[in-house]
Design goal:
This protein is mostly beta strands and 127 residues long. The chain is 0% helix and 50% strand. Strands 2, 4, 5, 6, 9, 10 and 11 form a seven-stranded mixed beta sheet that branches. It has a four-stranded antiparallel beta sheet with strand order 1-3-8-7, with no helix packed on it. The chain starts with a strand and ends with a strand.
Length: 127
């Protein structure tokens, strides 16, 4: 199994940027699809972005497309989420997630498709 640890959250003004990191340990990170989700207070955890094992394909929620960029470095067992033009509605706890894939690479966009989760990192965007 893989263990995930997020970092890089914090407080930023609207229009600013943050870069979240996800450090993976345990098993070969390149065997896992990866995604980012977020959860605002009192709301469900929702999909933000996903990337396939090789890093060759990405997918974004409509609300962040064009502002956020997901990436991964399998050699370093790490992933990241670059967040630009942040808005107050982006305020949430952000979670890194991973799912082991044995055969085909594909994008995963629901919480049910991920078996491994980090503890989350708080992102707060002030207006």
């Amino acid at each position: 199994q893989v263990q995930l640890v997020e970092s890089g959250g914090g407080l930023v003004q609207a229009g600013g940027s943050l870069r979240l990191s996800c450090a993976a340990s345990g098993r070969t990170f390149s065997s896992y699809a990866m995604g980012w989700f977020r959860q605002a207070p009192g709301k469900e955890r929702v999909f933000v972005a996903a990337i396939i094992r090789s890093g060759g394909s990405t997918y974004y929620a409509y609300s962040v497309k064009g502002r956020f960029t997901i990436s991964r470095d399998n050699a370093k067992n790490a992933g990241s989420l670059q967040m630009n033009s942040l808005k107050p509605r982006d305020t949430a706890i952000y979670y890194c997630a991973a799912d082991l894939e044995l055969l085909y690479e594909r994008i995963h966009t629901t919480v049910y498709e991920y078996g491994y989760w980090g503890q989350g990192t708080q992102v707060t965007v002030s207006s």
